Amino acid sequence: MSDTPSTLEARIGRAYADLPPNEQRLADTILSFPGELASYSANELADLAGVSAATASRFFKRIGYANFAEARLDARAAQRWGSPFYMQTREAQNRGLAASISSHVECETANIGHTFQHLSEDDVEAIVEALANADRVVCLGFRTSAMVADYAAWLLGQLRDNVSVIGRGGNTLSEQISGLGSDDVVLAVGLRRRLPVFAQMIKSLRQRGVRVVLVTDPTAQKSAQHANWVLRAEARSASLFDSDLAANSLIHLLCSLLATKLGQSGRLRMQQISDLHDELGEF
To answer: 127 lies in which domain range?
Structure first.
């Protein structure tokens, strides 16, 4: 295996101390906002750093790329994958507060609109039916997706028994999913920058007959191939961090519809929880 670092910033880091001063200046320009490399031409980048096009060409070869175009492809891939390091831009950095707020609201509104515009009513109806009748509902998510999975488990737990969250604590995933079967439902949240094990886990669950609801973003491919139902939530952002607002909104909708579906049994559980709150003096 090659010992060449896999990322642009790692390649620069390994070579930086040996670069001539003008190439170090180019490196500093790139590392300030690496995502901008995805949209610049070689000449634009050289002008921004105040170096010649020939210097830029030597720089990219020195850090292990065949040419500038190959480095730009890496930057574009990192943006598609959602790396925050590649999402920030000079334009965003220089926005005023009012413009930042406006861009944020505009992007979040567009995410919600696009997500629900493409929502399948048939899928939603089938998912709510599955959540209502499953023996157990298990929620799962890693990294930022874990927060959405926790929110789903909290709402579902207000309405029905046997709701849990896995992927936490000292047990392996295998130990936590081994007892699941065809009467159970897993609600898996996999927003971008998914762990490699995520798609394999969904495949393994389906092979065991477990029904899987996948809440994800438009980039998911492998994991989406194996889920029973796929709900795609836009996660774009006007800043460097992806947004989970649309994913949370999807969860909110599913649980609201589940409350209606369960009717009296759901209301009884909520009443029992409320009575316990009073009994234990929790609020």
So the answer is: 112-280
Residue 232 belongs to domain with CATH number: 3.40.50.10490
pLDDT per position as a tens digit, 44-75: 888 988 999 999 999 999 998 999 899 888 88
Q: In the structure encoding, which two tokens stand for residue 186, read together?
A: 């897993």
Q: Which amino acid is at 213?
A: V
Whether residue 104 is contained in a domain is answered as: no
Domain shared by 159 and 40, yes or no: no
Sign of CA dihedral 258, 261, 267, 269: negative
Q: pTM of this prediction?
A: 0.71
Pair (117, 251) in one structural domain: yes
Q: If we measure between CA atoms, which residue out of 140, 143, 138 comes closest to residue 194?
A: 143
How many C-beta neighbours within 10 Å does residue 144 have?
18
How many CB atoms neighbour CB 160 within 10 A?
20
